[in-house]
Design goal:
Two copies of one chain form a homodimer. The longest helix of chain A is centred in the C-terminal third of the chain and has 27 residues. In chain A, strand 8 and strand 9 form a beta hairpin. The first copy, chain A, has two domains: 264 residues, TIM Barrel, CATH 3.20.20.105; 92 residues, no CATH class. Chain A is an alpha/beta fold and 379 residues long. In chain A, helix 7 packs parallel to helix 8 and helix 8 crosses helix 9. At the A-B interface, helix 12 and helix 13 of A face helix 12 and helix 13 of B.
Chain lengths: 379, 379
């Protein structure tokens, strides 16, 4: 299926790592790519120019949150999510399913759809594949995700099969709506389920590939299983995915996890870690995590990360950041977030360059080793 | 007294309004000037580049807060407040007295100084004129304020006289420390007290003028008295202040109050209103206050203020701001603050231009009239 406003171009490989470019109705983004999360039409604490300044080329919006507040119909009347939040590059929205299962009070899953109560006010809502598509299309997303049902960890084979087969049936219903109302201009991704059961993952991939969707995500991972299990599943399933379409590993993860997933041929990522941890005073650096609110940094005149050229590291000291967290100043949340989002984007730039220059394996080893060094701050 | 690193140049007048320029060790600022408040080494929610982008040329830091956290000695070891918060333009610090009287639990005022308990942890501290100078000099402020004792409103003549005479005696002690340790490089301002008693205000001004300080502030106003009383006091006291030195009205105020004070020859202002109100969802505009978190703005695609060219008004809609406040997103606090600080700075630029072009009276009337218009939003 040719989608005028969407395409994946594989620019090169190094080892199993892929270097690519995705074209959408709002421009291109380079892969491997990390998408900062803009849950409620903002990457928390950052304005759209700051997000752009980090080098992020695509962000993720949350369907569940935007459906509840301010409502997809309101955003559509105001000209769509891009205009609403003043972000003119690609946007991917999730299906809303993950939040219904994790955040809302779930009432029941039926073949038709799910019923849930809002985490905000307990109001009752119904979400099904058709509505998920309508919401995401109304928001004006460039990439929309099919509604799926994921298996918890651990889930036995029966439960995992049930979830994956429902996910396939729902993906067909999503595709029908998308072809009618969202196509062209919007690209629908299917989500591979199957828990940690390799055969089920392959079954899910095969069933979704039959639908010939523009891209494929791997869902239901990073839900509590050991990371080795996650990567074992990836080892099994990524080779089964089409080479000419982007592969998106949902909800992963730490910098070292991104490296391990790129090493297995994944192209796209999202995760709350850089922003959520930053707001708790923990930032990511080239040598691993640094808890900036800790006392040893009270008189540290150096930047968060001497190897970082972000606006925070070139302007402010660890001592200043530590002071902002000690005094609960809102600016601390912003500066820590800006740094960590910048760090993730720089990591992905370095990842892409290493693949381009066909030195992936060396880069992978060196970077993982450096991430384990930590900071010699006497703790 | 000539201070190499400090001076006030009167560039012109229009009516009673003065257009001037103040030179400090960290460069000049144009007057009339409004100083955003950077209580804890940050203008709340804004980074230093954002503050600079609003056009602010000088900010105010709070001695009381910085003394408690992170401590003036720590900031001195790290190279001073300018470096700590990455603000390379002038900084004025208050004496700490106002917060001791308003925020801390005051234990007693004696001739020697004041004893108080921290609002943070109840720890006992002592502040006197000498320590206030030492703290402000350690912070590296360009303009430091003498420690004063202000009279509450209403205060009878006896209480007001007692406060003003103590303020004069403390100003002499401040001057001794400043001449020894802070001069040159730092400019000490005295604070005129005397409640709402005109004769006492004149007595206070005369006593302080004898000390030949680089600048004079009018304190103890905007503490609950009707604004007409405030302006009546200004009418009486500003003509008694030296024409060749800057005049700073402390803690005032709303945009219309700034106009009324400029109209009485005041050069410098500070106030928490633009930042504090912004964090509550109320912003300042050319037509007066606008409560952006209110429902009527939910679908308003226009900017906060169509007459504003700030980064918020040129990028985001009222609907987006309203959404951010509805969902308690931190970005809302930042965008509202950035707009309101920008608005105050633009107002002061317009004020200065009107004085330069000798059309102050017309500008004053037009601007006050427009501030009363409000927004036709059906409420």
């Amino acid at each position: 299926m040719t989608i005028p406003d969407f395409g994946y171009q594989r620019l090169g490989t190094s080892g199993r790592a892929r270097r690519g470019r995705v074209t959408t109705a709002h421009g291109t983004f380079e892969t491997p790519a990390f998408m900062p999360i803009g849950t409620q039409a903002t990457v928390k604490t950052l304005d759209s120019k700051e997000v752009e300044g980090t080098g992020a080329e695509i962000i993720l919006g949350n369907t569940y949150h935007l459906y509840l507040r301010p409502g997809h119909e309101l955003i559509e009347r105001l000209g769509g999510l891009h205009r609403f939040m003043s972000w003119n590059r690609p946007i991917l929205t999730d299906s809303g399913g993950y939040q219904v299962f994790s955040l809302a009070r779930l009432n029941k899953i039926e073949e038709e759809g799910v019923t849930f109560q809002s985490h905000l006010d307990g109001s009752r809502h119904h979400l099904d594949p058709e509505l998920s598509m309508q919401i995401q299309i109304a928001l004006g997303s460039d990439i929309i995700m099919a509604l799926d049902t994921m298996s918890p960890y651990p889930a036995n084979e029966e439960r995992a099969r049930e979830d994956l087969e429902r996910t396939t049936r729902w993906a067909r219903r999503c595709r029908d709506v998308w072809l009618k109302h969202g196509h062209p201009g919007t690209a629908l991704f299917g989500i591979v389920q199957g828990g940690v059961h390799d055969a089920l993952r392959l079954q899910s991939a095969e069933e979704l590939i039959e639908l010939d969707l523009p891209g494929y995500a791997i869902g239901g991972l990073s839900v509590g299983e050991p990371m080795e299990e996650c990567f074992r599943v990836l080892d099994g399933v990524t080779p089964a995915l089409p080479e000419d379409k982007p592969r998106y590993l949902m909800g992963v993860g730490r910098p070292e996890d991104l490296l391990d997933a790129v090493d297995r041929g994944v192209d796209m990522f999202d995760c709350v870690l850089p922003t959520r941890n930053a707001r708790k005073g923990s930032v990511f650096t080239s040598r691993g995590k640094l808890v900036i609110r800790n006392r040893p940094y009270a008189e540290d005149t150096g930047p968060i990360d001497p190897d970082c050229d972000c606006p925070v590291c070139t302007t402010y000291s660890r001592a200043y950041l530590r002071h902002l967290f000690s005094t609960r100043e809102i600016l601390g949340l912003k500066l820590a977030s800006l740094h960590s989002v910048s760090y993730y984007q720089r990591l992905m730039r370095d990842v892409r360059k290493a693949i381009e220059e066909d030195r992936w394996d060396a880069f992978y080893k060196e970077t993982k080793q450096r991430l384990g060094l930590g900071w010699d701050d006497g703790r």
